[in-house]
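Give me the fold.
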Amino acid sequence: MLTSQRKNLILDMLRREGQVVAKRAAGEFSLSEDTIRRDLREMAAEGLLRRVHGGAMPVTPDLPDFTARQAISSDVKRKLGAAAAAMVKPGQMIFLDGGTSTAEIARALPRDFAFTVATHSPTIAAELEHHPTAEVILIGGRLYKHSMVATGAAAMSQIANMRPDIFFLGVTAAHPVRGLSTGDFEEAAIKRHISACSAETITLLTVDKLDAVSPHVIMPVSALSGIIMQSGADEARLAPYRAAGLDVMEV
């Protein structure tokens, strides 16, 4: 079997199962463990996976700070934000997570009917300062500066009394087996809490967030109502999300 074929099989296993156990992969592919371990080392050097004892895990995305992420906001995120904003209906309450993609939602929100925006992000609230029809509710608490969102017991208590129609969730990674994840324990907890209080949860994804895993799990992908996805992703990578019953909108 060619090296490229072996590596493709390893990547397929990683996407399908969320991990590669070298011993199991060797048995499944009828190869030696030494061969699999050598391939895993090479693939880790190429940035295709992350080596762990006994095998490999999906890559963990870098976590640039909020200011750095603002600087790389792109046309892709503007398209994602516009598609999300178009889902909002008159009289609804939506909850906007922190982040650069959700900032694009705030900028694209309709201006010809009234609705309510709740957020635990002061930067998102500031985006809506001059919006003519949006009522804005800002949740307070301990500020997690990396993402510029409020976390902790005070924020959780305020959110518990809300029932948003749609929560637009921000994540750093999405994997069909390992779920939706982010880089901070407290941030993951509050995202999970907002979703539990909301009628629907929608996440916006760029291609680089697919098949990746960050340290702290928010919830399984099956807990989502839908995904607004950057166009151009291989259909094989999207198939597990569709199989989970999710509406995947490509823009």
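The CA atoms of residues 121 and 148 lie 6 Å apart.
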